[in-house]
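agent> fetching stored inputs for the iron/sulfur cluster docking request
agent> found them:
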Amino acid sequence: METAIIIKPHHFVDIISSLGSRKLSLEPHPYGHAVAKVTALILTSPERHLVLTPGADDICRPCSHLIHGVCNDTIDTSWRPLISPSKYLWNLTIDWRWFHLLGLKPGDSLTVFEFCQLLEPHLNDLPVVYEELPAERLAQRFQYLKNGLKFVRDRYT
Ligand code: SF4
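agent> prediction call returned; pasting tokens
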């Protein structure tokens, strides 16, 4: 069996959204993280298993911002003043919201395709997870995720 991908729920959602944004890049990132590599794995195998975590995942592992297992990066709060500038804290917030919304818990395992199917009925719940984001950004996220899920559905069914 193929090796499972350890991944934060929001990282998976971001990857599927990037498929729907037409801004998908498989170029290495200056941070050194593995988003391009994990995206390529997800794209080539809808049956690959994901193991969910709220902590550092396979994308974070080679990242220059991962220090002793904790992300030390900061985020631009100029357009989202209600969120913490700590990426570590913001990620924990949205990952736990995804866990609760989808009825999942850390350590749960499901395939790429199963996770996409689980997301479909929750498209309209994006404001629950990203409640601090402005409406126009939420609308954009909604459209990208919708497109990304359609991309997966069209490609693999
Ligand atoms: S360590 Fe932080 S910046 Fe690096 S991939 Fe993980 S969440 Fe992103």
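agent> quick read of the result: The pocket of iron/sulfur cluster is lined by residues 31, 33, 59-60, 63, 65-66, 71, 73, 87, 91 (CB under 6 Å).
agent> awaiting further instructions
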